[in-house]
Design brief:
The protein is mainly beta. The protein has a 15-stranded mixed sheet with strand order 8-7-6-5-4-3-2-1-15-14-13-12-11-10-9, covered by helices on one side. It starts with a helix and ends in an 8-residue tail after the last strand.
């Protein structure tokens, strides 16, 4: 169950993506709004064999930065869950990352606590550089141990993928496939993803319960329903179903709503409860 919850948090910040390099130029037409969003987490459904009978929690996500200085994402995700026998577990995941706006570099750190004890930690620096076979993506890990990891050259970092999704939605595309790396899974794993984009929402609005805290002009921002399936890599996983599926409404300024994460045996939802727009970083002239 802990493994499922870690995936939940990592993916929720990246849905929260155009690949840098000669073949995949970065797009500058997407403007992300710095903001802090708070989501209440609850259990939607579970099967008898899932190991999850109840769950409550909260996720706080913050995006800051600009096209000039890059983008910083900070998040804390805390849940309290119980199984069919009534045993309770508290999980606390804290993550931070910085990504260059052109997608050439990603720095990340993540610490996972279970009942106040650290169960996993990762930290590293991923960068695109010229190698003997052309452009390569390499990761230098500092935690859990010093190690260099090589990734496929067609890797998307989180903010690159976010950009690609919005660009595709604006162009009327309905399908986006991408290999995504965000430093999760001890910094050694990437996911193969397929995103399905629905029709533009006619009336995409922030929930009424928090509408009084939101600037009036946000109500007119375009949004689309999206669903992303995450597949594990490896020959033994080629015909396997997705590890999980993430669904949400995505505003073209980077704000998300109506979050659902489905693991098959159980599913959770994240309800946006508070949204604060933060000061935008100014680019030097």
């Amino acid at each position: 169950m802990v493994e499922h919850l870690r995936h939940t948090v990592r993916t929720s910040i990246v849905f929260v993506l155009a690949l840098a390099g000669p073949a995949f130029p970065a797009h500058a037409g997407v403007t992300f709004v710095p903001h802090r969003a708070i989501y209440d987490i609850s259990l939607m459904r579970s099967t008898s064999g899932s190991g999850v009978s109840e769950m409550t929690g909260r996720m706080v996500y913050e995006l800051t930065g600009s096209q000039c200085e890059g983008f910083t994402q900070n998040m804390r995700f805390v849940t309290r869950s119980s199984n069919q026998e009534g045993s309770e577990t508290t999980n606390d995941l804290r993550t931070s990352s910085w990504e260059e706006a052109d997608g050439k570099r990603l720095r990340f750190s993540s610490t996972q606590y279970q009942n106040d004890a650290i169960v996993e930690a990762s930290q590293g620096d991923a960068a695109r550089e010229k190698g003997t076979q052309g452009e390569e993506t390499r990761v230098d890990l500092a935690r859990p141990a010093k190690k260099r990891v090589s990734l496929p050259k067609d890797i998307y970092f989180p903010m690159q993928h976010a950009t690609a999704l919005i660009e595709a939605a604006r162009a009327g595309k309905t399908l986006v496939t991408a290999n995504i790396y965000d430093g999760s899974e001890k910094g050694e794993r990437y996911y193969v993803t397929t995103a399905v984009i629905g029709k533009k929402l006619e009336r995409a609005t922030i929930p009424d319960v928090i509408s009084h805290k939101i600037p009036a002009d946000l109500a007119g921002v375009a949004a689309w329903p999206m669903s992303i399936s995450y597949f594990e890599t490896g020959k033994e996983k080629e015909d396997a179903p997705p590890a999980y599926e993430l669904s949400f409404s995505y505003f073209e300024n980077g704000i998300t709503n109506d979050l659902t994460i489905d693991y098959g045996q159980f599913a959770i939802k994240g309800e946006l409860k508070q949204l604060d727009l933060l000061p935008a970083s100014k680019c030097p002239r």
